[in-house]
Design a protein that fits this description.
Family (chain B): Belongs to the DIM1 family.
Number of strands of chain A: 0
Protein name (chain B): Spliceosomal protein DIB1
Strand content of chain A: under 5%
Order of helices and strands of chain B: HEHEHEEEHE
Radius of gyration of chain B: 14 Å
CATH superfamily of one domain in chain A: Tetratricopeptide repeat domain
Helix content of chain A: over 70%
GO biological process, one term (chain B): mRNA splicing, via spliceosome
CATH superfamily of chain B: Glutaredoxin
Radius of gyration of chain A: 54 Å
Helix content of chain B: 25-40%
Oligomer: heterodimer
Keywords (chain B): mRNA processing, mRNA splicing, Nucleus
Number of helices of chain A: 51
Pfam families (chain B): DIM1
Largest sheet of chain B: 6 strands, mixed
CATH class of one domain in chain A: Mainly Alpha
Number of helices of chain B: 4
Structural class of chain B: alpha/beta
Chain lengths: 929, 143
């Protein structure tokens, strides 16, 4: 280190530039103090060099003889850190000068040679390029001409079409090409499927092979069949493996319950089990067992795993170990017995198990099951009872084992002594005893278990069996006692009990239960009505009609004047009871609510439908007495008479009705009545009179117009409609009739204007818009129709009928489906639209879907006659006989009244006396396709 | 006293040689004038610690009138400034004063000076160019 410090005593070299030797760089912290420079400045260095040269007496420009650029080159290669500094301290003397000169000479010589070489190479390259000109050069003159192209020319260059996208797509399409599977493969697959499974074969396989040997013909049907069989065998395999060995049933049905339980005790084939998984799980379980050997669950899991892996011996060993480690675990012993169930050791194991836990009911029962001979079983169970006399389950098993009722009785008597709180045992005993003794037993039971309602119910049923169900109010006492013991079950539970009694045939008990308990726990207010109605409905849904009947009976005793309750009760009787009981209920109902014309009409209708016209008349008469001048009853009477052919009588009735209950409806019915009978003149008279009283009744105006139309008096009809729409401008059907009249007369222009006025009077009405569109369409003016439709959909976007019109008549066939999808999104629930969708599917031969859509539409609105008609038409084409009959009866039950075509057909005087079924057929024929 | 005893660097060449000659130690050079009061105070402190830091640092003095070559390069305009070099690299130290390049006030606490020198040495050995001073001098001295 001290040697390093020698410099302190040395003199500094001449002309040394400070900092140059070590390449020092400065810094700038404060620009106000002046700029710092990087190391020694250029001037300083030059100055120093000049000084040194002068000192040596050399030419100052000694190095200037070289090229400027080479000087720069030299500097570029210099490393100022090292090279300058290395000899910077040294002295430049004569020897150095000479050495420099020699080096310069060498450099010069090398340069000369290089220049010669470069000149030669240039010449060669030029020669080569002349011989082999580049493409770029060939076109250089043309490229130069591009300079003269103006901006406009550039702008007007034609666009190159984008071919890349198309090309790509076409290439992809090429790649995605599908090839048919060779027939040989399919046939082979079919036959392989046959071998592996027990497929029912109709000899197709053998014929298949002969075909194959023939080789010239391909039987496509058989190939298809083979494919089906392969699929079927796969499915079968899947379902069998899922169902384990226990499921031997058919392939088509997989029992969900069985599937779950079979998962629990699944025994996989060795090939199916994943070996790696089993090994891993085995390690896991072994560590579980080692760390916690007193945990029975770990042992059981380990044994199950072995069983799953198919190693039944290992499983037995494992569980045996488990049993010795955890002798108090019932589960482990049960598992052990289960695993050994087919070996002779089972009984020994069971004995060991019971020795370890002699108070385990489950183990005793298991041990009992292992015995095959009844006497042995009895012995085991007696032993068990010695150990655990208070186990109900064991007593039950013991009683079940007894064949002789007397022995069973004895057993049960003993059992009830030991376990007096077991209701089941008491009930079993009572069932075995003679009726007299049973009563005693039940009394004892009641004392032992005062809180059990089952015993009370059993007592009540006993009374019923003895034929004294009505006399002794067992259940009344039951309710009192149970309430006192505060062990009263909830109302719903009582209803459940009642339903159970009904199921077992004890109808009187059922009724008694309802009677005593229905009001239990409910406040004395009107909520009860709703609650009971709901209870009854729930019972009906469960199919327990007696219970429901009892509920209604009780409810009606409380709410005598409730019309809705009576109706509900009548409904129940109509649907699930006899005609007599229905009459009874209705008679009671009209007595209770004489002011309710609905109930009266219902009664009259029922009587009439059963063919008892006189009685019906009588009923209506009574109804008149109670509700004088009620138009509904009048009209019902008229209907009754007219339908039974007593036209004069009906006419008289109508005349009286017009006087006594002069409503527009009565007048209208009168007019319709006359019109149907063909008395057009009378009808016209009536309608004129009626219009004087009720000028705002749109239906009367319509009738008048239609009568004129029928008579062929178009002018008068037009006049009628014109006045009608002035009187009742908001009636859409009137406007529609008016426009159709004009259209029928061939005056499309006028019809159009009528509809325009109608739309002004009744804005935002889908039917009017639809009629306008149809008018244009019928006139053959399709573009106009389309533009109108666009306007209409803007104004009334949620109108099904408009959408249907568009979908069926204004769209090309391919657009129908997307359009209907859009319509369904816009209008969620419209039966007309649903029917249209169904028809689209029908057209596409998707019959299942079509049917489901038809049914949806009918569920949505069963009153829509058109839906029924379409459905009928559909079923005529594709349905079975039963299906059609079923549908027709449903239709008749629902009595549809609405629908465009339906109304037109149903209201036609020609069809006035036809039944719903006939009308349905007529409408179906009428529908446009 | 310290001005007399500590080694002086008499020319730019000597300064450069001093910086280049040390391989393993920090080179601490005080630039200033020996007759200046601040310098005399600082030299006294440097002299006293010189022996205690000799294992990892060597201290030189340099008169900026005698050797003006570095005045512009290292901005030697203060009466007394101490610079640190390690293997021909100028070491910076963040004293919190805003000037990391040198210690340009009189630091009279010996232990603090030793700590600074040691910190710079340790940083230098790890290849750092800038270290943070163990103590913040931003409030102690203002210009």
């Amino acid at each position: 280190m001290s040697t390093r410090r020698d410099f302190l005593s040395q003199p500094a070299p001449e002309n040394y530039v400070a900092g140059l030797g070590r390449g020092a760089t400065g810094f700038t912290t404060r620009s106000d103090l002046g700029p710092a420079r990087d190391g020694p400045s250029e001037d300083q260095i030059k100055e120093a060099i000049a000084k040194r040269a002068a000192q040596l007496g050399l030419v100052p420009d000694g190095k200037k003889g070289k090229d400027k650029e080479e000087e720069e080159d030299d500097e570029r290669f210099q490393d100022p850190d090292n090279e300058v500094g290395l000899f910077a301290g040294g002295v430049y003397d004569k020897d150095d000068e000479e050495a420099d000169k020699i080096w310069e000479w060498v450099d010069e010589r090398m340069d000369r040679r290089r220049r010669q070489r470069e000149a030669r190479e240039n010449a060669e390259r030029d020669e080569y390029e002349r011989n082999n000109p580049k493409i770029q050069q060939q076109f250089s003159d043309l490229k130069r001409a591009l300079a003269s192209v103006s901006d406009d020319d550039w702008a007007n260059l034609p666009e190159v079409g984008d071919l890349t996208g198309k090309n790509r797509r076409s290439k992809q399409a090429l790649r995605q090409r599908f090839y048919a599977v060779p027939d040989s493969v399919l046939a082979a697959a079919g036959s392989s499927g046959e071998m592996g499974t027990t497929v029912m074969d109709d000899g197709a396989a053998s014929s298949n092979s002969t075909d194959a040997s023939d080789g010239t013909m391909t039987n496509f049907a058989k190939i298809g069949a083979a494919r089906d069989r392969v699929l079927k065998s796969r499915l079968e395999q899947a379902s069998q493996s899922a169902g384990g060995d226990s499921v031997v049933g058919t392939s088509s049905s997989i029992d969900a319950q069985g599937y779950i339980t079979s998962l629990n005790k699944m025994q996989m084939n060795e090939s199916q089990a994943q070996v790696g998984d089993i090994n891993r799980v085995r390690e896991l379980l072994q560590s579980v067992v080692k760390t916690n050997p007193n945990n029975a669950l770990g042992w059981i899991a380990a044994a199950r795993l072995e069983e799953l892996a198919g190693k039944i011996v290992a499983a037995r060993k494992t569980i045996d170990q488990g049993c010795t480690r955890c002798p108090k675990s019932e589960d482990a012993w049960l598992e052990n017995i289960r695993l050994n169930h087919d070996s002779p050791n089972t009984k020994i194991i069971a004995r060991r198990a019971i020795e370890a836990n002699n108070r385990s009911v489950r183990l005793w029962v298991e041990a009992m099951r292992l015995e095959t001979i009844p006497s042995n079983k009895k012995r085991v169970i007696r032993q068990a009872l010695d150990h655990i006399p208070e186990s109900e389950a064991l007593w039950k098993e013991a009683v079940n084992l007894e064949d002789d009722p007397e022995d069973a009785k004895l057993m049960l008597a003993k059992a009830t002594e030991l376990i007096p709180l077991s209701v089941d045992l008491w009930l079993a005993l009572a069932r075995l005893e003679t009726p007299e003794n049973a009563q005693k037993v039940l009394n004892k039971a009641r004392k032992a278990v005062p809180t059990s309602h089952e015993i009370w119910i059993a007592a009540a049923r006993l009374q019923e069996q003895l034929g004294q169900g009505q006399k002794i109010p067992v259940l009344k006492r039951a309710v009192q006692v149970l309430a006192k013991e505060s062990a009263m079950p909830k109302r719903e539970e009582w209803i459940g009990e009642a339903e159970k009694c009904e199921e077992e045939g004890a109808i009187i008990t059922c009724q008694n239960i309802i009677q005593e308990t229905l009001g239990w726990g409910l406040d004395e207010d009107d909520d009860r009505k709703d609650t009971w109605a709901e209870d009854a409905k729930a019972s009906i849904n469960r199919g327990k009609y007696e219970t429901a009947r009892a509920i209604y009976a009780y409810a009606l005793r409380v709410f005598v004047n409730s019309r809705t309750m009576w109706m509900a009760a009548a409904d129940l009787e109509r649907n699930h009871g006899t005609r007599e009981s229905l009459w009874q209920v209705l008679e009671k109902a009209v007595e209770a609510c004489p002011k309710s014309e609905d109930l009266w009409m219902m009664l009259a209708k029922e009587k009439w439908q059963s063919g008892d016209v006189d009685n019906a008349r009588l009923v209506l008469k009574r109804a008149f007495n109670q509700n004088a001048n009620n138009e509904d009853i009048w009209l019902a009477a008229v209907k009754l008479e007219s339908e039974n052919g007593n036209e004069d009588q009906a006419r008289k009735l109508l005349a009286i009705a017009r006087e006594q209950a002069p409503t527009d409806r009565v007048w209208m019915k009168s007019v319709v009545f006359e019109r149907v009978l063909g008395n057009v003149e009378t009808a016209l008279d009536l309608v004129l009179q009626a219009l004087q009283f009720f000028p705002t009744a749109a239906k009367l105006w319509m009738l008048k117009g239609q009568i004129y139309e029928d008579l062929g008096k178009t002018d008068q009809a037009r006049e009628t409609f014109a006045t009608g729409v002035k009187a009742v401008p908001r009636s859409v059907p009137l406007w529609l009739l008016y426009s159709r009249l004009e259209e029928k007369a061939g005056l499309t222009v006028k019809a159009r204007s009528v509809l325009d006025r109608a739309r002004l009077a009744v804005p935002k009405n889908g039917e009017l818009w639809c009629e306008s569109v149809r008018l244009e369409r019928r006139a053959g003016n399709l573009p106009q129709a389309k533009s109108l439709m666009a306007k209409a959909l803007q104004e009334v976007p949620k109108c099904g009928i408009l959408w249907v019109e568009q979908i069926w008549n204004l769209e090309p066939r391919t657009q129908r489906k997307p359009r209907s999808l859009e319509a369904i999104k816009k209008v969620d629930n419209d039966p007309i639209l649903f029917v249209a969708v169904a028809r689209i599917f029908w057209g596409d031969r998707k019959l299942e879907k079509a049917q489901s859509w038809f049914e949806k539409a009918l569920v949505l609105d069963a009153d829509q006659g058109d839906s029924w008609a379409w459905y009928y038409r559909f079923l005529v084409q594709h349905g079975t006989e039963e299906k059609r009959a079923d549908m027709v009866t449903k239709c008749v039950l629902n009595e549809p009244r609405h629908g465009e075509v339906w109304q037109a057909v149903a209201k036609d005087p020609k069809n006035a006396k036809k039944s719903v079924e006939e009308i349905l057929k007529l409408v179906a024929a009428e529908l446009e396709q | 006293m310290g001005s007399v005893v500590l080694p002086h660097l008499n020319s730019g060449w000597h300064v450069d040689q001093a910086i280049l000659s040390e391989e393993d130690r920090l080179v601490v050079i005080r630039f200033g004038r020996d007759h200046d009061r601040d310098c005399m105070l600082q030299d006294e402190v440097l002299y006293k610690i010189a022996d205690r830091v000799k294992n990892f640092a060597v201290i030189y003095l340099c008169d900026i009138d005698e050797v003006p070559d570095f005045n512009a390069m290292y901005e030697l305009y203060d009466p007394c400034s101490i610079l640190f070099f390690f293997r021909n690299k100028h070491m910076m130290c963040d004293f919190g004063t805003g000037n990391n390049n040198k210690l340009n006030w009189v630091l009279e606490d010996k232990q603090e000076l030793i700590d600074i020198i040691e910190t710079i040495y340790r940083g230098a050995k790890k290849g750092r160019g800038l270290v943070v001073s163990p103590k913040d001098y931003s409030t102690r001295h203002r210009y």
